[in-house]
TrEMBL record:
Residues 1-36 form the signal peptide. Keywords: Glycoprotein, Signal. This is COBRA-like protein. GO terms for cellular component: plasma membrane. The keyword Ubl conjugation does not apply. Pfam families: COBRA. It comes from the Eukaryota. Belongs to the COBRA family. GO terms for biological process: cellulose microfibril organization; plant-type cell wall cellulose biosynthetic process. PANTHER family: COBRA-LIKE PROTEIN 4, PROTEIN COBRA. It comes from Acer saccharum (Sugar maple).
Length: 209
């Protein structure tokens, strides 16, 4: 499905050319402008959204999307890595279009074992050629993110609660890429993202926080 984005407004903080500043705007739709000063692209940024799509018996399903709004910088191989710290005792039941670098200690689970039980998971993109049933739109490019392009993955989160009042935002986000350093700010809640189906005949939206 295709995301519809509204323009982001706000002042741009000028930093050194190798320092990137993240401002995470988190909700059921999460926008994260990553503002970096570049003399030839002073307004360039990477935007990260965390869209809560549906509820599960013990949590929710979310789609996380990174948009590269830098005109001249791209994330090259071996690609991006995205990390965060859960606010409570959340874990990841399953993922599509990405995977965590470590599973962590899931020994207390019998039968259906989660994809990742770490308090601070780190996610990477899948490689080209990934089986179709493990893909999502804009995934599986080995973490490469060209200017004006997007990269996405989906995760099912457990132990998160099943209402807007129980779900809490992850903390301490980090984004790493070859040759770049990033500093992350706190998430903020924004309006839910709207999606258009492939046949262009129906519009859906992420859940409201």
């Amino acid at each position: 499905m295709e995301s519809l984005l509204s323009p982001l407004t706000g002042s741009i903080t000028k930093l050194t050319s190798f320092t990137l500043l993240f401002l995470f705007l988190f909700s059921c739709s999460t926008f994260t402008p990553t503002e970096a000063y570049d003399a030839v692209d002073p307004n360039g940024n990477i935007t990260i959204k965390w869209d809560l799509m549906s509820w599960t018996p013990d949590g929710y399903v979310a789609v996380v999307t990174m948009f590269n709004f830098q005109q001249y910088r791209h994330i090259r191989a071996p690609g991006w890595t995205l990390g965060w710290t859960w606010a409570k005792k959340e874990f990841i039941w399953s993922m599509v279009g990405g995977q965590t670098t470590e599973q962590g200690d899931c020994s207390k689970y019998k039968g259906n074992v989660p994809h990742c039980c770490k308090k601070d998971p780190t996610v990477v993109d899948l490689l080209p050629g990934t089986p179709y049933n493990q893909q999502i739109a804009n995934c599986c490019r080995g973490g490469v993110l060209k200017p004006w392009d997007a990269s996405s993955f989906q995760l099912s989160v457990g132990a998160a609660g099943t209402t807007n009042k129980t779900v809490q935002m992850p903390k301490h986000f980090t984004l790493n890429a070859p040759g770049n350093a990033y500093t992350c700010g706190p998430p903020q809640i924004v309006q839910p993202t709207k999606f258009i189906t492939q046949d262009k005949k129906r519009v859906t939206r992420a859940l409201s926080k």
